[in-house]
Design brief:
- By secondary structure, the protein is an alpha/beta fold.
- It is 35% helix and 11% strand.
- It contains 17 helices and 15 strands.
- The protein has a 6-stranded mixed sheet. Strands 8-14-15 form a 3-stranded antiparallel sheet.
- Helix 5 runs parallel beside helix 6 (201-210), helix 8 runs parallel beside helix 15 and helix 10 packs across helix 13.
- Bound molecules: guanosine-5'-diphosphate and magnesium ion.
- Magnesium ion is lined by residues 283, 363, 424.
């Protein structure tokens, strides 16, 4: 009998426990997902995030970033040159209040519209905005550890830019994902894609779904992707055959030559690019290994930098045997373009007589489009183009950009982004200091760092600029 009572008590206890558990589970909520206007979630793509009408991704696209008037910096307001070609504005179908209400606007967008109009291109307002919202550059700076929210502060008039074929879609998807995860998801910068063939729907769909900013797709005009009329076709063909026999990488490729010439002289002049003042070049299959806590575009703009790099190395001489001769001819013809405070010591060990083949690796660049569009740079490109080495040899855009930067710019206008840990086959830049790698949550193997190895030119850049190399660099030589 007593045993029976105990059993009943146990049943009642289990029933009570189950009811209590059910009550707590059904009434609990995640504190990190606030209820906003009866909707859950204030993070892009989260439960309850704005549904984009007609969006087959089920509303998983991030909402539009607050990058409108008044938050751009520079003399080329985005609206001045109409966007050409195919443009897919991020969240363009969203009702305005829905796309903007849940994202904190950057500092300057609080200004009334007429003030923001006035603010465009106004130096005082730009520097005020920068001063009010300084970037956290080190772990001790306020705001450093906040990598969740949309980044406060002004946005630069800047875009990512990628040259790609339709067949590069999955390799570029991988790169975009890295760039977005480590940086752009908090900034929403635009992305311009350029191609010598029309981009197909799949390329546009995949890339637009991954980029947090607005994507633009441009078709390169034939005159920027073909042989100029002064090129002797027979001579160019013989060169390709000879280079093929000598097994020079891409030596027999016509399209690679068009690509190098395009990246040297035309990408920054495409109609879509005219809307912007700064660019960040991204290639397929690259990796970013560390969090990027600040806006590299702002670093460039606020410090008046014009060009930047993360990796440097020696060029394969068989691809550029006469590039330096053409450069010396240009220097003699245009002494007015050569900077008094140049980086010749990066390029030459004998005061300019011979080229040491050092160059910045141009598959990563953050830089000034205004500089590339300057008379000095265009004169240099046109002088090289006339000499025909893009086709009679196989001049790469990396030595072309690098020689131009080293000769036409002041030393301090070239920046080394140590914090941007990067991989493009087969080289890696991984910050040397352990504390930095931990602070930036890097996942690169420091043993892979190329900076101080014998085939890198980065030591020269440090020495030329009087910058101390980081502690521990000797262990990575
Ligand atoms: N549209 C287009 N893009 C190209 C072509 N060839 C190369 N590219 C792009 O140009 C960039 C450099 O080419 P890549 O193959 O990475 O050269 P590598 O890094 O020097 O080995 C990449 O962004 C490619 O996607 C081409 O024929 N057409
Ligand atoms: Mg590449």
């Amino acid at each position: 009998m007593a045993t029976g009572n105990v059993r009943y008590v146990r049943y009642i206890a289990i029933a009570l426990f189950t009811l209590t558990l059910w009550y707590f589970v059904s009434h609990s909520k995640y504190d990190t997902i606030p209820i906003v206007d009866g909707k859950q979630a204030s993070f892009p793509g989260g439960p309850g995030a704005p549904q984009v009408p007609g969006d087959s991704s089920g509303g998983s696209k991030p909402p539009a970033f607050p990058q409108g008037e008044g938050v751009t910096v520079g003399d080329v307001p985005k609206d001045e040159t109409p966007l050409k070609d195919d443009t897919v504005p991020k969240g363009s179908n969203l009702p305005v209040d829905e796309s903007q209400s849940e994202i904190p606007p950057p500092a300057t967008s609080d200004l009334p519209k007429e003030d923001t109009e006035k603010a465009k291109g106004d130096e005082t307002t730009k520097s005020d905005a920068a001063a009010e919202m300084p970037m956290p550059l080190t772990p001790n700076d306020p705001g450093w550890s906040n990598l969740q929210d949309i980044a406060p502060g002004p946005r630069m008039n800047a875009t990512f830019v990628t040259l790609a074929r339709n067949s590069d879609v999955w390799e570029i998807a991988e790169s975009i994902r890295q760039v977005e995860d480590r940086f752009n998801r908090r900034y929403g910068y635009d992305w311009v894609f350029l191609n010598d063939q029309p981009f197909d729907d799949n390329f546009k769909k995949v890339t637009t779904s991954l980029v947090s900013g607005t994507t633009h797709y441009g078709l390169i005009p034939e005159e920027h992707w073909s042989f100029p009329e002064w090129i002797d076709q027979d001579k160019a063909k013989k060169v390709r055959e000879d280079m093929k026999e000598r097994k020079i990488i891409y030596g027999d490729s016509i399209s690679y030559r068009h690509m190098c010439r395009f990246e040297s002289g035309f990408f920054f002049r495409q109609p879509l690019m005219l809307n912007y003042e700064y660019y960040w070049r991204v290639e397929p299959s690259i990796k970013l290994f560390c969090d990027i806590h600040y806006d590299p575009f702002r670093v460039i703009a606020e410090n008046k930098k014009k060009y930047s790099f993360v990796l440097s190395l020696y060029e394969y001489i068989d691809t550029i045997p006469t590039l330096w001769d053409s450069t010396k001819k240009f220097m003699a013809n245009h002494p007015e373009h050569i900077s008094d405070d140049n980086s010749m010591a990066f390029l030459s060990d004998d005061g300019g007589e011979n080229y040491n083949k050092c160059h910045f690796w141009s598959n990563f660049e953050v830089g000034s489009l205004e500089w590339l569009r300057s008379k000095a740079y265009i004169d240099y490109f046109e002088a090289l183009d006339r000499d025909g080495g893009f086709f009679y040899e196989r001049w790469g855009d990396a030595p072309v950009h690098s020689i131009a930067a080293a000769l036409l710019l002041k030393k301090e206008e070239i920046h080394f982004f140590d914090d941007i840990a990067y991989y493009h086959v087969p080289f890696t830049h991984c910050p040397t200091g352990e504390q930095k790698r931990l602070d930036l949550r890097c996942h690169c193997d420091p043993k892979e760092n190329f900076d101080w190895k014998g085939y890198s030119c980065t030591s020269r850049y440090f020495e030329l600029n009087g910058i101390d190399k980081p502690a521990g660099y000797e262990e990575q030589t």
